[in-house]
Specification:
- There is one protein chain.
- With 211 residues, the chain is an alpha/beta fold.
- The chain contains nine helices and seven strands.
- It has one domain: 3-Layer(aba) Sandwich (Rossmann fold).
- A hairpin with a 3-residue loop joins strand 6 and strand 7.
- Helix 4 runs parallel beside helix 5.
- The protein binds S-adenosylmethionine and zinc ion.
- The site of zinc ion has 7 residues, from helix 3 and helix 6.
Length: 211
């Protein structure tokens, strides 16, 4: 066997982490989250754990209209827009003005500002005003908001569209975090086979197709 062959689960994980990072064209944006948290004092802005996965899913689904709930500093929206290609338009909801500004600067420096639009406001206020048919929705914000976002996702996503959900199991990092019970209900509700075909990924992400 080749000596660089990973021979344990931990070694496989290290191999995946290393090669995911080296193929991540927007890693430099993900790297800004930690210093940002220290400077801004916010606690809930983390980059998605696997940007290339978002890019690959968007490239496969070829969505024209994408919606993200939880923009942060823009890392995941960049991957979604890049994967979706030139015909994809991303709307991304962000409650904090400071994050929206930083994200917009990132979109501009990547030449993607015309295809990624930040909707500033709380998801609960912004979502009811949205209409039409989205092809892909990415949920990545406060777990307490998850069920309300799921209701809107059922309304907004076309049949065959993709709902990607992050942070299904935040209790492992913060057992007392508010909203965990809501998220526990969410991760079971996406198993409802009359509405979704869902696959869980061990890192706590899920991919659900609207049926
Ligand atoms: C985990 S971060 C998003 C990270 C981003 N998706 C990425 O991967 O680069 C969550 C973001 O949601 C925002 N947020 C928190 N509660 C929100 C709400 N109720 N509505 C909209 N945005 C919210 C936070 O300010 C934070 O920027
Ligand atoms: Zn912040």
């Amino acid at each position: 066997m080749h000596s660089s062959e990973p021979k344990s689960a931990a070694a496989v994980q290290r191999w995946i982490d290393k090669h995911t990072r080296s193929s991540d064209r927007f890693a430099y944006v993900a790297d800004k989250y930690e210093p940002h948290r220290k400077e801004h004092g916010c606690f809930d802005v983390y980059p998605s754990s696997n940007g290339p996965l978002l890019g690959a899913l968007a490239a496969a689904a070829k969505p024209k209209r994408l919606l993200e709930v939880g923009c942060g500093l823009g890392y995941s929206a960049l991957w979604l827009a890049y994967g979706a290609g030139l015909r994809g338009e991303v709307e991304t909801i962000e409650a904090r003005k400071e994050h929206a500004k930083i994200a917009r600067d990132h979109f501009k420096s990547e030449g993607l500002e015309k295809r990624i639009h930040v909707l500033v406001g709380e998801a609960a206020r912004v979502l009811p005003a949205l209409d039409g048919r989205y092809d892909l929705i990415y949920f990545d914000t406060d777990p307490g908001e998850s069920l309300a976002v799921l209701d809107h996702s059922e309304r907004l996503l076309r049949k065959g569209g993709l709902l990607i959900s992050a942070n299904l199991f935040l209790g492992q990092f913060a057992p007392d975090m508010p909203g965990l019970e809501t998220m526990a209900e969410y991760r079971l509700r996406i198993l409802d086979a009359t509405r979704w075909l869902t696959a869980y990924i061990p890192d706590g992400t899920s991919v659900s197709v609207r049926v």
